[in-house]
Design a protein that fits this description.
360 residues, mainly alpha, 3 domains, 3-stranded antiparallel sheet
Amino acid sequence: MFTREVSQIIPHVYTRFEPAAVRVDEKNIDLILTVKDAQLPDIEPELNLFDDAYRLNRHAPVINEMLEELRLRARAGDPCDGKTLTDFFERCLTDGTQYWYVSSLRLVQGWCGRLKYEGKPYHDFKVTRAQELLTKALNFRKTDFLYDPQESLTPEERREVQKAIDRLFHRMEPDTVNIMASALEEELEKLEDQNIAQSILVQERSLPVKPILKEGQGLIKDVREHPQLDRRLKAFLLNAEKVKTLKDYQIRLQEFIEAGRPTDYRRAQALKRAVERALNVIPKLNEPQVRDWLNEMQAIEEHQEIISKWATYYQNLQPLLQRYQAAYEEQHKARQTSYAQVQAELSALEYLLKAWGSVM
């Protein structure tokens, strides 16, 4: 089949493509799906399919015209299955309007990885089933090719995604789209569940936390909303640092929660209110040092640093509590002394009143 196609195409190639004698070896369809990145430019080098960075060369004539045909068909709603495209390109070979052949379509689409078979999309050419759709003629003819104006993940992007997943979630997964997307989905789901639970507690306890916690739902959605797996991984790569910031903050917040700090914070708020009410009543509380403690605690709250600066917050809380307790006990003691004095005076007055009554 491929030899016949090559013999038909060569006479039409001379006017549009150099070098003209291009022969696509069918075994390269298998190779392009399995070789290491460094070997990609060596596959059909006359077609100039890849650049030095192992990215698909979308400006190469064979790729550009194939993608353009898919784009036009997608816009018009025309069929893009293997059989239809095979028939179309074979007809074009006879009138000189195209200079490449069906094996090139399979070669390039194998790398693009935009396939659908019996309603199921395949975005990862490393998946065995996706490879079968490209290498087995019967499956190929029943496969739909999906036009996507954006390029799929480059080899370098795959490696970056792989490293980012390992760095953020401590999972070194194979650099296949399906496996990495599945691992990412698991981790983002856990991150989202934790975010929801923490957000509820933060709201209930009025904890002054960083905005990243509230932004977490939108950030996770921005990554997960892409139905295409490679797009989802690209979105993750674009937002990896933000996701890391969110994850790290939620880890610290969880430690804060498990240590019982929200309850301590609620008690601290009650103490602050008690001190502020007593400032003008108890002289020993209306001192510069007490106001310094209150001001530093307030600054930590206003800057939403209660998680990262809890130690400093607590260092101000403890002396404030001790000062309040001492002032309260002293005030209570003074009141008790005054009460005892009043009681003694009332007892003496009562004695005098009785004495005067007996004289009269």
